[in-house]
Design goal:
This protein is of the alpha+beta class. Helices cover 24% and strands 25% of the residues. Strand 33 (775-788) and strand 34 (791-797) form a beta hairpin.
Length: 1029
């Protein structure tokens, strides 16, 4: 597609009035009605997904009948249809599922509600048909056929032999003098004798081992960062640093965390490199198709039960480990891993050789016509990445050699594979790069040619340094040369201590308070070769100091294969660091190969294994003037810039050539209207882009863009810069439509500051609080009570043993359920507990189920809740909302204090819940605030909590006035009738003054068209006494 095809239509900027009358968002309440709040919903509105009920109410029955006559409903599907086809397998057989497994609905809410010809949608479809042609029919067909964090105190569990070895070496070291200038001959001789004995004690691994970290807990909660991506159901360790945006996921933990995890890496610390969404696979239904001499399909139980298994420790490292060092010299294509894209865990599975023999592979290898033919074994995963399924191949004879231990793994550290690491089945090729170890393995077949998939041809290749553009004919030819493949792992060694930014007091070193310093790190080699030597230099390579090697327990396979990494260390006289310009490390393998001194740049940034260098600098503290020795690694993880390497110039979005476009300004309110796939606006570096036309061609997929569409925040800029090269910046320029206003920019900066503040608060999370603000927890259904024909009261139990719920009055929780593209979220306010003393580990929700009928699909979440079986889970996080009732008429709203003697609530539908919470707290305590409560619904059956509200009216007649207004009441109804209008608000509301506060929550049409205009005209003000829940 040419850039000219992507030019967005001419979109006028906001008017002079809109720009100059825009509120100062940086100093405005986050609960301004009608705008997107911090929990990504529009404040003061109930779920817009249910708003069709109020729209149809206004159109009347006549128009609805016309829509029915014009529309053929066909076989329309509701969320219940999808739920009915899914079994809660993880509850039946938890032992074969990850402990943090989640159920998902394998479609999207958009398909169920908006992309089927329900009568409520027909008019919208008819308007779009001319532009979209037959796209609707194709999309409907595609969607219908869719296939049906680790606590710090638990990190690091060392094996007994390593503890004993360290203890013995410590005793030896204490008895020896310092190493002086060079490493002294006598201490070195002693260390070598110690290491000789240690290496002699290493045992052969029979393949039946147990992981020493099997008791380490895995992450249970889900970070809210993934809530609007297809990976919304995947739990990840909270210290896993995202390196390429939120989706697809690629990340690594801090290198110190990884190293301190031990010689066997806890599962939650393993690096992640995904090329697309994590496929939601289930042990019970997953199948592996193997085509060799014959075609055989295996279930997971058949693989596990019918073949012998091995359980061995294997080093797995991404070929892009240390890529960021190359990027700092010149931009590369790929995820900028630093040094933590390597891990060593126990993998358990069956030998690929045995599975191939069961598929009669011998009929191919023994065929006389095939004797001189080079054969390949191909592997394909179930992941649907942007360039197709991830697939690759290796020589068949390599896979058939039992000594190579090529396996189909289904456990990691003695537990089912985590989702990010390939659940339920992953190929493991010990000694080879991670890119060949296909995750979510679904298909294996034999060919007489190499795999021709995109990811085998154009990924994981080491191209010569002269190739600087991957789109040229020369680059294309290079990609297809077999010798550019990255297969066997290369030699590598890294310094992990001193840490990045670590400080040592110069005074402590000079006074010999700190006499000895231990330099530590890791090293690995490929193809099972042993690391023969590791050495460090403190004088630019003139002399090298021998390092002690440490292995996991029983690291040797078949008498000579070393599939694991090693940890190494060297103790030096601390005073030597004061005169050292750099600390360098290198290692040697069994063939006396060693690492190159300097990096070898290549366009994909792979296989970087030059000497790793840490630089110490003496820095004076500006306040205390004390001097410290500060250590810097080549580069920091993510967007950190404190490493000693200086990177290339960042991509600059130069758009001034089109001054007319550049001068168009857009307000926050305008940008937030454009969040659909047909109209997706992004804000990057303060500029506004219409990305709608690049959704289908975006390499990262639609979900990456849609996670930021219509959102006015700095996150989009940060994530865009983290992964895009110059081509990406060029592509983006074609979508430019204007800039944000100064006030919108001020809002983004304020929200970023608030986000950073919240992050610090989350790090210090009170363990007595069950809720977590930025992470989803699973809440299990333990009780369901029928309140009326379509209203239920649900009781959910949280996994936390905390003593407090963590929700203040006026706040709400986010309730979610997983769909194929995102978490379906709804803000709900629990009706219990109201007081801390009522919390018993459970909470109650009162929810009205909006059932489907022939005209519409019903409420998505309400039907999910109604369909839940006992023991099934939903997601919950919170608290959300910055309205917090303090008692005595006092509110804390956005950290500002308000005091009201009179409270006016105007609510509709489910919007009654937050108002009820405040109402219950006021009336059930000693508060004296007066309350008027206007509750708008269609009929008597739609009034939520009617019994409780009637009791309040009866028991507190002098303090509360509750008015129910029904638009379609029965003939028996004696209360107010009709639609809410200005006259009724003035009649049943409080006249505005500084002692009166108004709180609103209802359907968008009700709130925007009636309530807001009336209240603001009456004298209520957004800044002082008008707020939206």
């Amino acid at each position: 597609m040419e850039y000219t095809d992507l030019t967005p239509p001419d979109i006028p900027g906001c008017t002079w009035d809109e720009i100059h009358l825009e509120p100062d968002w940086a100093n405005t309440s986050s609960h301004r009605i009608g705008l997107r709040g911090r929990d990504d919903r529009f404040m003061g509105f109930t779920n817009s997904g249910e708003a069709w009920r109020y729209d149809i109410d206004k159109d009347a029955e006549r128009k609805l009948r016309e829509l029915r006559e014009k529309t053929e409903t066909g076989n329309l599907l509701t969320v219940r249809d999808f739920l009915g086809e899914q079994m809660p397998y993880h509850l039946v057989r938890p032992e074969v599922h990850p402990i943090n497994f989640r159920t998902i609905v394998k479609t999207t809410e958009g398909f169920i509600k908006d992309e089927q010809p329900w009568p409520a949608n027909v008019k919208k479809y008819e308007e779009q048909l001319q532009d979209r042609g037959q796209k609707w029919a194709k999309e409907r067909e595609r969607l219908i056929t869719v296939k049906t964090g680790i606590p710090e105190n638990l990190i690091g569990e060392q094996t007994m032999h390593r503890k004993q070895a360290i203890q013995e070496e410590e005793e030896l070291r204490k008895s020896q003098p310092g190493d002086g200038g060079k490493q002294g001959e006598w201490p070195l001789a002693q260390l070598l004798e110690y290491e000789r004995k240690y290496l002699h004690s290493l045992k052969n691994n029979d393949g039946q081992g147990k992981s020493p970290v099997s008791s380490i807990t895995v992450p249970r909660g889900i970070d809210e960062a993934y809530q609007f991506t297809p990976d919304n159901w995947v739990a990840r360790y909270e210290r896993l640093n995202r390196l390429a945006g939120k989706h697809p996921m690629s990340g690594e933990v801090p290198i110190t965390t990884l190293y301190e995890g031990g010689l066997i890496t806890p599962s939650g610390l393993h690096y992640v490199r995904n090329h697309g969404p994590v496929p939601h696979l289930v042990w019970e239904t997953h199948r592996l198709e193997v085509t060799a001499g014959k075609c055989v399909t295996f279930s997971m139980d058949e693989l596990k039960d019918n073949f012998s298994s091995i359980n061995i420790p294997v080093l797995l490292a991404c070929e892009g480990n240390r890529r960021k060092e190359l990027t700092m010299a010149k931009r590369t294509k790929g995820v900028n891993f630093t040094t933590a894209a390597a891990s060593c865990v126990y993998w358990k599975g069956v030998l690929l050789r045995d599975v191939l023999l069961a598929a009669d592979v011998h009929t191919i290898t023994e065929d006389k016509e095939q004797l001189n033919t080079r054969l390949w074994i191909n592997f394909e995963g179930a992941d649907e990445a942007n360039e197709g399924n991830y697939a690759t191949s290796i020589p068949l004879m390599y896979a058939l050699d039992a000594v190579n231990d090529v396996m189909l793994a289904y456990e990691m550290n003695d537990a089912p594979l985590p989702a990010d690491n390939g659940y339920p089945l992953r190929l493991i090729i010990p000694g080879w790069v991670g890119g060949r170890c296909v995750k979510w393995l679904s298909r294996i077949w034999v060919t007489d040619y190499e795999n021709e998939s995109y990811y085998h041809l154009y990924d994981n290749r080491l191209l010569p340094g002269f190739v600087t553009d991957t789109t040229t004919d020369v680059a294309n030819a290079m990609f297809k040369i077999p010798s550019t493949l990255c297969n066997e792992q290369m030699l590598n060694s890294v310094i992990t201590k001193p840490e990045q930014g670590e400080k040592l007091s110069v005074a402590d070193i000079k006074s010999e308070k700190v006499k000895t310093y231990r330099i530590e790190g890791y090293a690995y080699a490929g193809n099972g070769n042993q690391i023969q030597r590791v050495e460090i230099s403190l004088d630019n390579g003139k002399y090298w100091i021998y390092c002690i090697r440490m292995y996991p327990d029983r690291p040797i396979r078949h008498g000579y294969k070393f599939w694991t990494w090693i940890h190494w260390y060297a103790d030096i006289d601390a005073s030597r660091l004061l005169d050292t310009e750099k600390i360098m490390v290198r290692c040697y393998d069994a063939f006396q190969n060693t690492q190159p001194e300097n990096p070898q740049w290549n366009i994909l940034g792979v296989m970087n294994n030059c000497w790793y260098t840490v630089k110490p600098d003496i820095v004076k503290d500006p306040e205390s003037t004390a001097a410290h020795l500060t250590f810097r690694h080549p580069c920091e993880q993510g967007g950190g810039t404190e490493g000693w390497m200086v990177g290339p110039p960042e991509g600059v979005l130069e758009d001034a050539d089109d001054q007319a476009v550049y001068d168009k300004l857009f307000t926050r309110e305008e940008i937030e209207k454009h969040y659909t796939e047909d109209d997706a606006w992004l804000v990057i570096h303060g500029k506004v882009y219409n990305a709608s036309k690049v959704l289908d061609t975006h390499p990262g997929g639609r979900a990456t863009i849609m996670a930021h569409a219509g959102r006015v925040h700095l996150d989009t800029t940060e994530e865009f810069d983290a992964i895009h090269d110059e081509w990406g910046y060029t592509k983006l320029r074609t979508c430019l439509i204007g800039r944000v206003t100064e006030k919108a920019m001020g809002f983004m900066k304020r929200e970023a500051e608030m986000k950073a503040k919240q992050h610090l608060e989350n790090v210090k999370h009170d363990p007595e609080m069950a809720l977590t603000r930025n992470k989803y927890s699973q809440a299990k259904l333990v009780k369901k009570q029928t309140v009326s024909e379509d209203v239920n009261r649900y009781t959910f139990k949280l996994p936390s043993s905390a003593g407090k719920f963590g929700l203040e009055i006026g706040q709400h929780v986010q309730i979610g359920f997983h769909f194929a593209d995102r978490i379906l979220l709804r803000p709900l306010t629990p009706v219990r507990p109201i007081f801390d003393s009522e919390y018993d580990g459970t909470f109650d929700l009162v929810v009205k189920t909006h059932y489907a009928d022939s005209n519409q699909p019903g409420g998505t979440l309400t039907n999910i809740l109604d369909s839940l079986r006992m023991g099934e889970e939903i997601e919950i996080k919170g608290p959300s909302g910055s309205i917090r009732y303090q008692g005595g008429g006092a509110f804390n709203i956005d950290e500002r204090q308000y005091k009201f003697d009179r409270l006016l609530f105007i609510v509709g539908g489910t919007g009654v819940l937050p108002g009820f919470q405040v109402l219950a707290r006021v009336l059930r305590s000693t508060d004296e605030a007066k309350i008027k409560f206007i509750d708008v619904n269609k009929s008597e059956d739609d009034i939520l909590l009617r019994t409780e509200l009637d009791e309040f009216s009866r028991d507190y007649p002098d303090q509360v006035q509750i008015t129910h207004l029904l638009s379609r009441p029965s003939k028996k109804w004696q209360g107010e009738k009709g639609h809410l209008d200005k006259e009724k608000i003035l009649r049943y509301g409080y006249e505005p003054d500084e002692k009166t506060g108004a709180f609103v929550c209802g359907p968008p049409a009700l709130t925007e068209q009636t309530v807001m205009p009336t209240l603001t005209e009456w004298g209520y003000d957004h800044q002082t006494n008008l707020f939206g829940f």
